[in-house]
TrEMBL record:
<comment type="similarity">
    <text>Belongs to the LysR transcriptional regulatory family.</text>
</comment>
<dbReference type="GO" id="GO:0003677">
    <property type="term" value="F:DNA binding"/>
</dbReference>
<protein>
    <submittedName>
        <fullName>DNA-binding transcriptional LysR family regulator</fullName>
    </submittedName>
</protein>
<feature type="region of interest" description="Disordered">
    <location>
        <begin position="298"/>
        <end position="317"/>
    </location>
</feature>
<dbReference type="InterPro" id="IPR000847">
    <property type="entry name" value="LysR_HTH_N"/>
</dbReference>
<dbReference type="InterPro" id="IPR058163">
    <property type="entry name" value="LysR-type_TF_proteobact-type"/>
</dbReference>
<dbReference type="InterPro" id="IPR036388">
    <property type="entry name" value="WH-like_DNA-bd_sf"/>
</dbReference>
<keyword id="KW-0238">DNA-binding</keyword>
<keyword id="KW-0804">Transcription</keyword>
<dbReference type="Pfam" id="PF00126">
    <property type="entry name" value="HTH_1"/>
</dbReference>
<keyword id="KW-0805">Transcription regulation</keyword>
<feature type="compositionally biased region" description="Basic residues">
    <location>
        <begin position="308"/>
        <end position="317"/>
    </location>
</feature>
<dbReference type="InterPro" id="IPR005119">
    <property type="entry name" value="LysR_subst-bd"/>
</dbReference>
<dbReference type="InterPro" id="IPR036390">
    <property type="entry name" value="WH_DNA-bd_sf"/>
</dbReference>
<feature type="domain" description="HTH lysR-type">
    <location>
        <begin position="8"/>
        <end position="59"/>
    </location>
</feature>
<dbReference type="Pfam" id="PF03466">
    <property type="entry name" value="LysR_substrate"/>
</dbReference>
Length: 317
C-alpha cells in the first residue's frame, strides 16, 4: 500500500479523532481508511490508537508515528511536479477489473476507443468473476453490475443492464415454452453464482414477481451459462448485451416478452476521490458516455432493487 496515502489517512484520523470524519475529508470510504490504519500499525509494529465508543486517541507509539508522518508529508509536498507532465492530461497506466462477459462483449472495444483518444495512457485489464479488493490488488477501477453495491465503496453510476430470458428452439420444442414467469419453476434453469434455488425477478405493468428457479447447472460467470444455453442445456437469464446477437440470428429465443427481468445497475468502483489521476477521471467520463450510447449499450429501465434478493442476481467485476 502507498505509505504517503497511509500517512495522510493516519494524520487526518489523529487530527479529527474519528475515522468517519477522516474518510469524509479525504473522499475515501470508511473501510479504506480502516485498511490504511491497519497497514500503518503493521509497519509501526505497534498499536497506534486507543479506540473507544466516543473517540480515538493516540498511544505513545502513535504520537511518535504521527510526528514522522507529518515530516514525510511535508517532504512529499515539497517535491516538484515535472513540467512536462501536466496533471490534467490523461497519461500513465490504469488497472481495470471486470467480469469475462462484460470484458469481451463491451469493454474490449471501449478500452480500444479510449486508448485511441488518450494515446499517452495504457490499460491493464484484469478479468475476474469475483469481487476484487481494489487496494490490495492495486486496481484503479472495477466495473460492477449489481443491485447490491457495498455502501462503503465509492462508485459512479454508469448505466443500467437489461436482461433477457432465453433458450434454444430445440430445448423449447422438447420441453415446451413457458408463458408466465411461474412456469419457469417447471423448467431446467441455468442459474448464476450458486447451486440450488435462485430467484428470478420480473416486472409487468407495475406488478413485480419473484420466481424460485433451479436446474442441473450453475456457474459464477454468465458467459459459461450462455454457452450452455446455446447447447440446449436449459433456460438462461442473460445480460442483453450478450444474448442479443444470438436472439437476432435465431440461435436463441427470447421468452416472456410481456415480462421484463429486473434490471441492474452498472457502476465504476474506485478507492478514493482524493487526487484522482486524470486518466481515471477521463476513463469514468468516457465510460459514462459509452454506456449512455445505444450504439454500444442496450438501454434498460432503471433497476428497482429488493432487499435480500441480490444474491440471486448479482454480477461483479
Amino acid at each position: 500500500m502507498d505509505r504517503i496515502t497511509a500517512s495522510q489517512v493516519f494524520v487526518n484520523v489523529a487530527e479529527r479523532g474519528s475515522m468517519t470524519a477522516a474518510a469524509e475529508a479525504l473522499g475515501m470510504s470508511r473501510a479504506m481508511v480502516t485498511r490504511y490504519l491497519a497497514q500503518m500499525e503493521g509497519w509501526a509494529g505497534a498499536r497506534l490508537l486507543h479506540r473507544t465508543t466516543r473517540r480515538l486517541s493516540l498511544t505513545a507509539a502513535g504520537e511518535e508515528t504521527l510526528a514522522r508522518c507529518r515530516q514525510m508529508l511535508e517532504i512529499a509536498g515539497q517535491m516538484p511536479v515535472a513540467a512536462d507532465m501536466p496533471a490534467d492530461v490523461p497519461q500513465g497506466l490504469l488497472r481495470l477489473s471486470c467480469a469475462q462477459s462484460l470484458a469481451q462483449d463491451v469493454l474490449a472495444s471501449a478500452v480500444a476507443a479510449y486508448l485511441r483518444q488518450y494515446p499517452q495512457t495504457a490499460i491493464d485489464l484484469s478479468i475476474s468473476s469475483r469481487t476484487v479488493n481494489l487496494v490490495e490488488e492495486r486496481i484503479d477501477l472495477a466495473i460492477r453490475i449489481t443491485n447490491d453495491l457495498d455502501p462503503n465503496l465509492i462508485a459512479r453510476p454508469l448505466g443500467h443492464c437489461a436482461s433477457v430470458v432465453c433458450a434454444t428452439p430445440a430445448y423449447l420444442s422438447a420441453h415446451g415454452t413457458p408463458r408466465t414467469p411461474q412456469e419457469l419453476a417447471l423448467h431446467n434453469c441455468l442459474t448464476y453464482s450458486y447451486f440450488g434455488k435462485s430467484l428470478w425477478q420480473f416486472g409487468h405493468k407495475g406488478r413485480q414477481v419473484a420466481v424460485p428457479v433451479g436446474g442441473n447447472l450453475s456457474a459464477n460467470e454468465s458467459s459459461v451459462l450462455l454457452t450452455a444455453a446455446l447447447e440446449g442445456a436449459g433456460i438462461a437469464m442473460q445480460p442483453e448485451y450478450s444474448a442479443a446477437p444470438w436472439v437476432a440470428n435465431g440461435r436463441l429465443v427470447a421468452l416472456l416478452p410481456d415480462w421484463r427481468p429486473l434490471a441492474m445497475g452498472v457502476y465504476g468502483v474506485y478507492s478514493s476521490r482524493r487526487q484522482m489521476p486524470a486518466a481515471l477521471r477521463a476513463m469514468l467520463d468516457f465510460l459514462a458516455l459509452r454506456f449512455s450510447d445505444p450504439r454500444h449499450w442496450p438501454p434498460a429501465a432503471p433497476p428497482v432493487p429488493r432487499r435480500g434478493t441480490a444474491r440471486a442476481r448479482s454480477r461483479t467485476a
